[in-house]
Design a protein that fits this description.
five-stranded antiparallel beta sheet; about 90 residues; mainly beta; OB fold (Dihydrolipoamide Acetyltransferase, E2P)
């Protein structure tokens, strides 16, 4: 699995299924309600930015990113230059 960032393309609140567009490769990643289990999300909106893990063409483990994870200007990246992190850093 790899951590990626993207935005919600579509979300069905009845089924909990949806599609994300990945920032780095612009691919669509489908997800099911199980991807939201254990997260703070109860619902998602189109265009919402999130961090997720990819298993093939499926998104799993949807979560909010920190300001650093989301690349917010003014927040220093912990490990600049590393390709293993969505914003150029690696996990701890």
């Amino acid at each position: 699995m790899s951590a990626l960032q993207g935005v919600v393309r579509s979300f069905d609140p009845v089924t909990g299924a949806g599609v994300l567009v990945c920032d780095s490769d612009l691919r669509d990643y489908e997800f099911t309600a199980e991807a939201l289990e254990g997260s703070v999300f109860r619902t998602l909106r189109q265009g919402q930015r999130i961090v997720f893990d990819a298993e093939g063409d499926r998104a799993v483990g949807l979560r909010l990113g920190s300001e650093v994870d989301m690349g917010t200007p003014g927040f220093e990246q912990p490990h600049p230059g590393s390709a293993q992190h969505p914003q150029g850093g690696t996990e701890g």
